[in-house]
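Class, carefully examine what follows:
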Amino acid sequence: MKTAEPVALEGRSKRTAWVLSALAAVVVVIGCRFLFPEPMLFRAASIAGVCLVLWLSEVVPLYATTLMLWVGMATLLAPLDPKNFSLPRVLTAAANPVMALFFGGFALSVAGAKYGIDRYIAGWMVRASRGRRVGLLAAIMAGTAVLSMWMSNIAAAAMMMTTLGPLFGRAGGDDGSAPVSADDLRFRTALLLGVAFAADFGGMGTPIGTGPNLIAIGAVSDRHAITFLDWVVLGVPLAAAMSALAFVLLAWLYRVRGRIGAAAAAIRPARLSGRGWSVVAIFFVAVGMWLLEPVHGVPAAVTALAVAAALFAAGLLDHRDLDRLEWDTLLLIAGGLTLGELFHASGLAAAMAGAVDWGALPRPVLLMGLVFACALISAVASNTAASAMLIQIALGIVPSPSVAVLVAMGASMGVPFVISTPPNSMAYGQGGLRGKDLFVPGMILMLAGCTLVALTGPGVLRLLGIP
């Protein structure tokens, strides 16, 4: 999930960004006046357009845009339609059960980091490499992808980079020592990119892995209930396939071979305390409850709340850990859900969908276009905002829950740039990488991933009973 705050702008750069954003917002509003003469559509399009400008430019924190969205809907749209856009109704859209599911996932993530479970897993991944570079790359990518399914991709990538810090520092010469060979530099680059891409793609595996997944589930909840298991059956193979493709591509591009050095060999699994094992036990109970939701009937969101309650009630988390929960991300997800409701309730999504004769396009081409559009926007902006907008437009074009799922998967494919995702930025921040190091494999993976989703996704979703 893309949740990192932009690097603070200083002085003239910040003023320039503000001026350009203000001009872009004005252009958007003027354009909406010509495109949507009807008052409701004009106001809804203007609110959505300004919010998208702010999400793209990041001149204000992403979560602050959510607050502005709520204010704009309640003040500009409520006078025209008080039933759908009164403040209680606007906040109801944000209070979707998927928020509770994400909250429980964040609580587990914080507990895992607090008791060293993430470092424990990372250590075992290094040990599983058996001293081979290609094995280390595969193990680290597998571990990062699995972690990213259950915690934010930022946390998963940060933990892996911290664990491998001695190796990265030596290869980059940050500790004053020169790289041993060109193979060392290539291997370091492959590891950094491997951690970033695995963190990006792992989030597709579960509903709580990244925001677009939950936005898709919430968007179609009134049409078709998508269970935790439904998503896992589609998402885990897709996340595994994309991570495996990234591994093969990186191993080939950077000619990964040979044995690991002493710095990597010295990394050992951490020891877990009794409280750490208690968190592990709660985690496995939670996963079991989520996967067996069709059997016992307890909603996944209720299980997530029970997990959070158990962690705090047992003293495994306390009031200080509340500050470590990603409240900014929760607000961002709430904004995405609200933006989706804005598109739907105002009729904006239907109007935009009806502006073109989409039926003239073959279904596979249409799906490919929607998935690729979401990936492309996500590559340069918040994937939450991209999916919230495009999911509603896609549902207006093809009123099928499966389309919402496919578009959400596309949001995780937008990985070719340094700014595309926080793990990409974190890898670049380690030093020694160039923009094209991310762009070349990232673009290949984005195109391959979008094609895979568009061609295979509909068939898998039909087997799951998702129309």
Q: What stands out?
A: Residues 98-322 form one domain.
